[in-house]
């Protein structure tokens, strides 16, 4: 949603070798791992070890002896004297590679935790290097052709929904749902019944097995999850016995009760999207030369965005200077909306967004094309596809299937849901992630064989170590309200930390030297903040070069290595986005 990231999903897909196309005929009876055979991850990742671990494919059918293979990597803690075990990490998505996330951020996470944990990254079932993975095309080139010849789920909308716009939106959704149904059939043809086995319930059981193999049967599972990774964390609390659970941090909270209900609609996802966009406009306008459109007022920036969307909606442009692999690239309002949406995840991307908007306001759309166009490279015909549609497949395994009391939505209802989100949440970005509500068109998934159907409530005092719940004030896809509901539902089993003034997806995207010692005290010593709620000010501001000395009053007692690693975590997200 929900990825640290949906935003960096494309970047992650470009880093590291793609997994081979999975042939479901090879899903035969195999013995499960009893030990882990760690090996080299290659010369580029000398500090890491990698392994493939077999787990049951279907946990709900004891007669099914087939296995899935989970790709795992780790960076070992350097403080062997005070070792605290392992910590599993997941960056979100769903569908983002946890192993690649670990390759990029693992050393900094290890430093933040003072080398006392092994950092374990893994590709959840259905994703990237794990097998089976969500493979819907014969090659990467075929996937690129599909993306290029379809809407790629982007809706072409102006800033104001009139009756004519609503009718056009309905037509767009008819096309999108047809494309989705065709894609679903193609995925099912390649994957068969395994499409029903990618749910989060199964992922939690996978983590349980991985933990026992890596750390031993009696070692508690420590976990740090962002975005959709917070869904995994909350499922762990509900599914696993309390004695299996160690110290758990979830950051950028998804409301797991809504996640597991009937397919979610955009009005419930983008609640704070408009506030983040307003934060961009306000900080840009007051930034001096740090933002390319700071000559405009904040209302002026928002007005120019509206005007540009309206112009591209009425008269799509064409960019022809990207090279032969791209040809003539059409640009409409949907492209610009998506660019802005991506930038809302991370304030460090806002200077680039200012440059893109400056060019777009002048009628130059090359930067938009560079960021959103899909090229066709003949060499990709020999490369496997990259599990790009794992997000919908995993989510639709978790969602409640429609029934007689709650029938599938009509096109008119889907249209009204998009209009409601745009009207209530943001005229520029309200519709984002609407495709999560299209599970009825992924018809071969439901009913899932890996859907958790129980409660997410915990009795008071259930957890030996209450979890840490972290949230920004304004998160584009994981509203603070979701974090508040989560803490209230878990009661004394959770503590909430809000980064006051925080803008962007997950607290990790914006430095706070108040949040850092809370994380360290919890993960290293099991110490929790007093009370259910703690407010932490952010120390990193949009369009402002980060100056650690400005936060001197909050760095006392924090060692230099920890501070530098905490800062580097935020910067690493921007590195991933640029890939």
Automatic annotation (TrEMBL):
Residues 87-253 form the AB hydrolase-1 domain. Coiled coil: none annotated. It comes from the Eukaryota. InterPro entries: AB_hydrolase_1, AB_hydrolase_fold, Pept_S33_TAP-like_C, Serine_prot/Carboxylest_S33. The keyword Hydrolase applies. Pfam families: Abhydrolase_1, Abhydrolase_4. Residues 1-18 form the signal peptide. Keywords: Hydrolase, Signal. Residues 430-533 form the Peptidase S33 tripeptidyl aminopeptidase-like C-terminal domain. SUPFAM superfamilies: alpha/beta-Hydrolases (SSF53474). GO terms for molecular function: hydrolase activity. Belongs to the peptidase S33 family. This is Alpha/beta-hydrolase. It comes from Heliocybe sulcata.
